[in-house]
Design a protein that fits this description.
Arc Repressor Mutant, subunit A; elongated; alpha+beta; 3-stranded antiparallel beta sheet; Beta-Lactamase; 2 domains; 6-stranded antiparallel beta sheet; DNA-binding; homodimer
Amino acid sequence: MAGNTSPPGATVTSRTVALLTAFDEQHRRLTLTELARRAGLAVPTAHRLLRELTSLGALARTPSGEYVVGRRLWDVGLLAPTPTDLREVASPFLHDLYAATLATVHLAVRDGTRVLYVERLAGRRSVPVVSTVGSRLPLHATGVGKVLLAHAPADVQAEVAGSLTPVTVHTITQPGLLRSQLQAVVADGYATTVEEMTLGACSVAVPVHRDADVVAALGIVVRSLRRDKQRLVSALKVAAHGIGRSLGAGDRRSR
Amino acid sequence: MAGNTSPPGATVTSRTVALLTAFDEQHRRLTLTELARRAGLAVPTAHRLLRELTSLGALARTPSGEYVVGRRLWDVGLLAPTPTDLREVASPFLHDLYAATLATVHLAVRDGTRVLYVERLAGRRSVPVVSTVGSRLPLHATGVGKVLLAHAPADVQAEVAGSLTPVTVHTITQPGLLRSQLQAVVADGYATTVEEMTLGACSVAVPVHRDADVVAALGIVVRSLRRDKQRLVSALKVAAHGIGRSLGAGDRRSR
DNA sequence: TCGTAGACTTCCGCTGAGTGGAAGGAGCGC
DNA sequence: GCGCTCCTTCCACTCAGCGGAAGTCTACGA
């Protein structure tokens, strides 16, 4: 009666991917049992798959036996088109912006109803923030998020407005207020937040255009906006414009 | 007689990984037939696996039907321990270094007998170079490569010295010359190249220590070394020292 | 307009690769 | 020593995966 009771609709491929995607920001090293549980697999099955993945270089093992993401997967991941192209093109502009402001600089795109951070520059003297490259945060609570939301399709805006979860006491939770702010973002060409994501941190962000489309948002985080908001906005706009122009020129062989 | 003639030793997992790793720097978008060929699979098999991978978000399709690496894979790849931790820790030091030199800044580790570039900062006015993040270059033809090679085990040094392929007319091709240069690198604490990888580009690089081990190399690329080599070397050493100290402090929960 | 070539997609019967329960270590704390 | 937890290996059953063949779509040249 030794046998086989495969869960419905689970192909080997999906099992493999399930194992790989069991890793996340909070779980960068996992044990066999934990991986099996997170991927919904029997322990021996997980063990065999993990051994294969390890020998192929997709995963690696720590000295203590835990599994971590391997270098080969890092390689392949870097080839993902949108983040990489954006990063590559934007890089010099981000450095200039950092040099000019000494603030934390963010480049982000929209991923469904969240902001996905594609690049982050932070100096040692910058305001501490929660974002890291690859992390996702709510659209309504960050500067880059508001920019991306303001230029998102109506159904996305509706979905976000339907569940405005607070992060700090200053996070926007009223759909009407959000709507009017988004209109202002489109009109003014920039968005701001004041302690809506992190207490003690404010942000300014502008859209990055490629032709008519908004493909990304560029933002900075500072301690206060009182002093020189206008200077920051214009520095951001210059950088965003430069990125957009380089992006337009850079679409080699995309039909 | 419809049947099954699976190649020996090919598991589904290895097929999946073969498909994913069929992508590289030069082939960031591939067609079905090309992928099947590169992974050594029958076209219908590749087709089915690719469809699964696409629906799972590991791959994506361009409007024209080609396959590209998906965002989910990018996510997972970012969790690979070594490159990410290094990047994260080194980031502020790299920016400072860039600000101080305006040169292209490289952070690299050794991957077998090649240099693996983990991070690159390039300004708009920097010397153009071939490296991108994730690319691998020969150890003997770059500044960071020489540093890593000088601190590599003897067998790696021997293997590299055994096949010194020239890149430019200035690339080192004599094992004896390489050996003496590597000794100098260890003694002096820095390495230089003069047009050995790219004509018109010189580089300086220093090791990044974590305790006694050399875990990475930090380098910059400039047009000429005549002018202020000593200033560059000391700027590099300061940054490398800072990175090493932060690394030592930053090894939370690694047994 | 039609024919041809090439690449993509769907179908389906055979079979061996994948499955997971069970059992055998290994390490640790009490 | 004893029990607990986690990792690893084994193995018989069976269904998931395989790929040849056939059908579809698109591009291009006559």
